[in-house]
Amino acid sequence: MTAELKAIVGLGNPGEKYTKTRHNAGFWLIEQLLRESHASAKSVSRLHGLHAQVSIRNQAVHLLMPMTFMNVSGRAVRALMDFYKLQPEQILLVHDELDLPAGTARLKRGGGPGGHNGLKDTIRCIGREFARLRIGVGHPGDREQVLGYVLSAPGKADAQALDNAVYAGCRAIDDWLERGWDYAVNRLHSSN
User: Fold this and answer.
1) Active site (annotated) includes residue 51
2) How far apart are CA 134 and CA 29, in angstroms?
3) Which CA distances in Å does 98 have to 84, 101, 103, 142, 149?
4) Which Enzyme Commission number(s) are listed (predicted)?
């Protein structure tokens, strides 16, 4: 039996210049959940980010977009955990994933950072026991191009694929809340 989902944290960078970049895939998913819930996030300084509490499948869920910049996201996740007395197992962290093709979404529990600095800082602050929703953004092919790649906007085809992955991620969250983790994983991984 897996823990009940209580909070979803989308990783990204604050500011207009980062809004459409691949690195903000986590923010895109939170923004979609806010639209679907007819809600808006408010700046909460003690949480170091934009926060909302919404109802998804008749369950209260905290949504957070850290405004700390990607590489120090962990302190916002820790602040959310401490303030609302959450366990890492109750948190879903949504982030861009270079190792998945653009448009692929995958759920995962635990694991290492895989070179992702936002994950690395979150693991440093709360450990590895949180769930992840990985939004595939593809890889530029050359390791030296990664930073420029994740901090740039995708082309039209990749942008549509990423929108589809965000939508699939939102449906997986619905499935987790309604039918459980295993069902959500199986359905997402067989359909996306």
Assistant:
1) no
2) 11
3) 31, 7, 11, 11, 10
4) 3.1.1.29
Check: CB of residue 126 under 8 Å from CB of residue 76.
no
15 Cβ partners below 8 Å, 6+ apart? none
18 is in an annotated binding site: yes
Tell me if 84 is assigned to a ligand binding site. Answer: no
Strands (E), 45-185: 49-56, 59-66, 91-97, 105-109, 131-136
Give kind and range of the element (H or E) at residue 43.
strand 42-44
Domains and CATH numbers, the chain: 7-191 (3.40.50.1470)
The DSSP output letter for 85 is T
Catalytic residue among 23, 48, 95, 116: 23
Instruction: For 87-141, write each residue's pLDDT tens digit.
Output: 999 999 999 999 999 999 999 999 999 889 999 999 999 999 999 999 999 999 9
